[in-house]
Amino acid sequence: MARVLINLPRTARRGEVIEIRTLIQHVMETGYRPRADGSVAPRDIITHFACLYNNEEVFAAELAPAIAANPFLSFSLVAAESGILAFTWTGDNGFEQTETRSLTVT
Amino acid sequence: MRICVALSVMVALPAVAAPPPGASSCAGCHGGGGMPVLAGQPAEAIAGAMLAYKAGQGSPTVMDRIARGFTEAEIRAIAAWVAVSR
Amino acid sequence: MRRRALLGAALLAAPALAQAAPQVVVIGGGFGGAAAARALHRLGVAVTLVERDATYLACPFSNAVIAGLREMEAQRFGYDGLRREGVAVVHQAARTVEDRRVVLADGGALPFDRLVMAPGIALHPDAIPGLDTEAMPHAWRAGPQTLLLRRQLEAMEDGGLVVLSVPANPYRCPPGPYERASLIAHYLKTRKPRSKLILLDAKDAFSKQRLFEEAWAALYPDLLEWVPLSSGGKVVEVDAAARVVRTEFGEHQAAVANIIPPQSAGRIAQAAGLTDRSGWCPVDPVSFESRQRPGIHLIGDAIIAGAMPKSAFAAHAQARVCAEAVAALLRGEAPAPPKLINTCYSLVEPGYGISIAGVYQPKDGLLADVPGAGGVSPLGAPAKVRAAEAGYAEDWFRTVTADAFG
Fold first, then answer.
1. For the segment A8-31, what is each residue's pLDDT rounded down to a tens digit?
2. How many Cβ atoms are within 10 Å of C294's Cβ, its own excluded?
3. Which residues on chain B are in Cβ contact (under 8 Å) with C321?
């Protein structure tokens, strides 16, 4: 399990635009970097991120080898209804991790 | 090589000679505030100490890391200059 | 008209430096500027130092002042030594740099054939919304801010949280925030042991990191917590009145907050058009001449020096090299490629010093590390090595201040 940081408000007014910040601790090994012994470190990156709001995808991103370690993503969405936000990172070597947060809309 | 060293000593003798590469940084520490003062010491002794640190001898804490940044010719030129500098 | 005449005279006289000495002005009387002025004078150049303040307060060892281990007066240096030697010292702020003359705050002007600028840094507290440096001092320039932070620590009740925030690179004195955190932790450990210190960092790695972490684990295990960028260490805003510090992922209620803001080259460098888009000054690594304006040389924290860090030691080493280069150029000669040294000590508690050193040479238009040289103190070294390096730090400070200020 990678360490994940997520920042979003617990509550929001209906129709309010809220900002969400996410960070996952990940090496984002490019697949091009030579190691001390001359061999190339195999690629190990996060390739995809998605945010589902009550099971509907509201934000997604494709990540490439040029993206720095510990990718930080920030995006905004309209608080339409109370519910669950699910954040999923997928990547090389079968990596997949999902975190959920609840949002109360008043 | 030896001739080169001797020449650089002679060139460095006048007090106004420009410092060889690296020499002007020495004054940051070796000017009488507690660490050894180099001016007035024999150039051969200064160069000998620097070359020993470069070779990993002695137990300096910083000068080994610095000495490794200079060639033997550079070290001898620096030693000749700081020995006669003010 | 007068300027034209002066310039002509300078050109004619260039081969005979000592007779009709060309005018060199140095702006800024810190470690770099003061050392450059003295070095130029010794090389027979007529030099005028322009410095706003009557005395200079040194940053190295000011972290010890904050922690109550040293008094501010030990940081103060004057310019009488320079005057006695024959360096003209003008206590005025430099307002602008025109073509071959410096305009002073009082409207006067100093003509120059070559100008050396050691303008130091400008701090940008406005980059952090809500920041009021009277409530949350930066203490990143020695002076009233240093004493304000010290008083705040002294006034804090035992059990309080001290928050120290470090900007992203580049900034003045790369290991400085970590030395400060160490010495504040020492103050808390000895005076207010129920307190805590959180070090919020906009980076994931820092200078002498393994040495600091080794010392922190031994000396301040439950007291000092480092929060790197990837653990949410970047401060995005503060509420100065409420002493709340907000990061990208959370917030901290501080009793004392020391927010070190992002920095750039000093304001006069920006006003003179010497900075690039980074906010710092690109220079030629042999002559330290500006890449933006010929005839103007820059040294110290304000420049883009490649691998060479922004330290007093580096500024002093650059000052010596720059003075030689300026003198050579005034004689009509090309300056020789230099090598420069930097050594930087940090204290993690009284009598426990660690260091980083480097040797630099021009490469691809910047100052690059000489391969195989430099590096940090060994990990796991015995106490006598740490004590020796703490002593060397003081020796260096005495020597370099004597060399810069006389």
1. 999 999 999 999 999 999 999 999
2. 10
3. 24
